[in-house]
């Protein structure tokens, strides 16, 4: 099972510019979480802070008893091996074929024999649907295949926590749906804790168990997916609805005069339709995270907004029976 990631009071700045401040959340073990936010809200910075590649000025990130912010460098280095990181562009070496790209972490961080490396690499390539492409160079394949190669490379060290940075960037809607299914299938197979950073609404609607959103240097919310999907918070409704009206502007947040003028525009108050979460592909085991999440959601039932409870009841018959 994946490892819980506890984030407490995290604040990150570059010079006088605060990226976000006092971010507190917990990534539940083995569940899939998504972090949303407009461009420029520091989502990638957040990922790099979790793994210890960037140092926030305040707060802690606790992973398996190690603080990835203030711990000893040796401990951080060792704990980093629990992570698999999928970069936006795949971050593949252009001069290496896919096999060597995916094998790179094994050759760099382990003393495994080449026969064992080959077995692991081929297993991971099969897992992401790339068997037969191991001899190709990154420049010879599609963007979607490069994404999957990057995902395979993130998996070779058997991570218990997987961080995906904009897995949909540069992909068309069809290939985005393929990568979404791939992430759910992966969770079913290895039960890792997963955090996906994205601003893709299709991924947000269909993939995660939990959702969060960054805006105006703050964590707007983080919790079960139904809480954000039914939220009446203006910035959440604007983002999920893809509307111009609301706090998010083209560059940064809108000024008060613009927001005041928009108060006279009638917004659509129709409750959002929550689409079902993706299920593992036929032949794969059920996701172990589902039952753990169900128990966790029931434990916090009284603290959930009414709209979120209604959505959960509609989506989970067992929950409906217990709380009818």
From TrEMBL:
Residues 5-241 form the ABC transporter domain. GO terms for molecular function: ATP binding; ATP hydrolysis activity. It comes from Actinacidiphila yanglinensis. This is Phospholipid/cholesterol/gamma-HCH transport system ATP-binding protein. Keywords: ATP-binding, Nucleotide-binding, Transport.
